[in-house]
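Milestone 3.1: sequence recovery, worked example.
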Protein backbone atom coordinates (compact mmCIF):
# COMPACT_ATOMS: atom_id res chain seq x y z
CA UNK A 1 0.00 0.00 0.00
CA UNK A 2 1.31 3.42 -0.87
CA UNK A 3 0.91 6.20 1.66
CA UNK A 4 1.95 9.81 2.02
CA UNK A 5 3.24 11.33 5.24
CA UNK A 6 2.22 14.97 5.63
CA UNK A 7 4.43 17.19 7.81
CA UNK A 8 3.82 20.75 8.95
CA UNK A 9 6.80 23.17 8.92
CA UNK A 10 9.22 22.17 11.67
CA UNK A 11 7.80 18.64 12.04
CA UNK A 12 9.92 15.57 11.38
CA UNK A 13 9.52 11.84 10.95
CA UNK A 14 11.89 9.03 11.93
CA UNK A 15 12.32 5.79 10.00
CA UNK A 16 14.13 2.85 11.56
CA UNK A 17 16.65 0.94 9.47
CA UNK A 18 18.48 -2.17 10.68
CA UNK A 19 21.65 -1.39 8.70
CA UNK A 20 20.98 -4.28 6.30
CA UNK A 21 20.64 -4.48 2.53
CA UNK A 22 19.60 -7.23 0.10
CA UNK A 23 22.25 -9.20 -1.79
CA UNK A 24 21.43 -11.49 -4.70
CA UNK A 25 23.47 -14.71 -4.77
CA UNK A 26 23.72 -17.82 -6.94
CA UNK A 27 22.75 -21.12 -5.37
CA UNK A 28 25.10 -24.05 -5.92
CA UNK A 29 23.63 -26.51 -8.46
CA UNK A 30 23.78 -29.24 -5.79
CA UNK A 31 21.25 -27.25 -3.72
CA UNK A 32 18.67 -26.92 -6.51
CA UNK A 33 16.34 -29.93 -6.80
CA UNK A 34 15.54 -31.32 -10.24
CA UNK A 35 11.99 -30.94 -11.45
CA UNK A 36 10.12 -33.89 -12.92
CA UNK A 37 8.96 -31.78 -15.90
CA UNK A 38 12.55 -30.96 -16.94
CA UNK A 39 12.27 -27.25 -16.24
CA UNK A 40 14.74 -25.63 -13.88
CA UNK A 41 14.02 -23.97 -10.58
CA UNK A 42 15.52 -20.53 -10.11
CA UNK A 43 19.13 -20.56 -9.01
CA UNK A 44 19.20 -17.14 -7.38
CA UNK A 45 18.27 -16.11 -3.87
CA UNK A 46 18.30 -12.91 -1.85
CA UNK A 47 19.73 -12.63 1.61
CA UNK A 48 20.41 -9.76 3.99
CA UNK A 49 23.89 -8.50 4.63
CA UNK A 50 25.12 -5.92 7.13
CA UNK A 51 26.33 -2.62 5.75
CA UNK A 52 30.11 -2.39 6.04
CA UNK A 53 31.86 0.70 7.38
CA UNK A 54 32.24 3.41 4.78
CA UNK A 55 30.70 6.40 3.05
CA UNK A 56 27.03 6.07 2.04
CA UNK A 57 24.57 8.40 0.34
CA UNK A 58 20.92 8.61 1.38
CA UNK A 59 18.12 10.44 -0.41
CA UNK A 60 14.38 10.99 -0.14
CA UNK A 61 11.74 12.74 -2.23
CA UNK A 62 8.89 14.92 -1.04
CA UNK A 63 6.12 16.78 -2.81
CA UNK A 64 4.26 19.96 -2.02
CA UNK A 65 0.84 18.31 -2.59
CA UNK A 66 -0.94 15.03 -1.97
CA UNK A 67 -2.13 13.39 -5.20
CA UNK A 68 -5.15 11.11 -4.79
CA UNK A 69 -6.14 10.99 -8.48
CA UNK A 70 -4.95 7.36 -8.75
CA UNK A 71 -7.14 6.25 -5.82
CA UNK A 72 -9.90 3.99 -7.19
CA UNK A 73 -12.11 4.92 -4.20
CA UNK A 74 -12.06 8.52 -5.48
CA UNK A 75 -10.31 11.24 -3.52
CA UNK A 76 -8.10 11.21 -0.47
CA UNK A 77 -8.75 9.29 2.71
CA UNK A 78 -8.51 11.13 6.02
CA UNK A 79 -4.97 11.99 7.08
CA UNK A 80 -4.39 9.74 10.11
CA UNK A 81 -2.17 11.23 12.89
CA UNK A 82 1.19 9.50 13.51
CA UNK A 83 2.62 9.20 17.02
CA UNK A 84 6.02 10.22 15.57
CA UNK A 85 4.61 13.43 14.05
CA UNK A 86 2.63 14.43 11.00
CA UNK A 87 -0.14 12.31 9.58
CA UNK A 88 -0.44 9.55 6.96
CA UNK A 89 -2.81 9.43 3.98
CA UNK A 90 -3.27 5.87 2.67
CA UNK A 91 -3.30 5.27 -1.11
CA UNK A 92 -1.97 8.76 -1.90
CA UNK A 93 1.06 9.78 -3.95
CA UNK A 94 3.26 12.86 -3.72
CA UNK A 95 2.56 15.62 -6.24
CA UNK A 96 3.14 19.29 -6.91
CA UNK A 97 6.71 20.54 -6.84
CA UNK A 98 9.14 17.75 -6.03
CA UNK A 99 11.85 18.29 -3.43
CA UNK A 100 14.87 16.06 -2.88
CA UNK A 101 16.93 15.75 0.30
CA UNK A 102 20.36 14.12 0.22
CA UNK A 103 23.07 13.35 2.74
CA UNK A 104 26.37 11.50 2.53
CA UNK A 105 27.57 10.09 5.83
CA UNK A 106 30.33 7.87 7.18
CA UNK A 107 28.85 4.79 8.82
CA UNK A 108 30.65 2.56 11.28
CA UNK A 109 29.43 -1.05 11.00
CA UNK A 110 30.00 -1.58 14.73
CA UNK A 111 27.44 1.08 15.68
CA UNK A 112 24.46 0.57 13.38
CA UNK A 113 22.10 2.98 15.14
CA UNK A 114 23.74 6.17 13.92
CA UNK A 115 21.09 8.70 12.87
CA UNK A 116 21.07 10.03 9.32
CA UNK A 117 19.29 13.37 8.95
CA UNK A 118 17.67 14.46 5.67
CA UNK A 119 16.27 18.00 5.51
CA UNK A 120 13.95 19.23 2.77
CA UNK A 121 14.26 22.87 1.81
CA UNK A 122 12.40 24.71 -0.90
Amino acid sequence: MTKVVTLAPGESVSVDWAGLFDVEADLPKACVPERSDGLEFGTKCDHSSAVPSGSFSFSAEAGTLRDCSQNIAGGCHECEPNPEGGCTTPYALIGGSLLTARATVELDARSRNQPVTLIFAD
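The CA atoms of residues 37 and 74 lie 47 Å apart. The chain has a mean pLDDT of 84.
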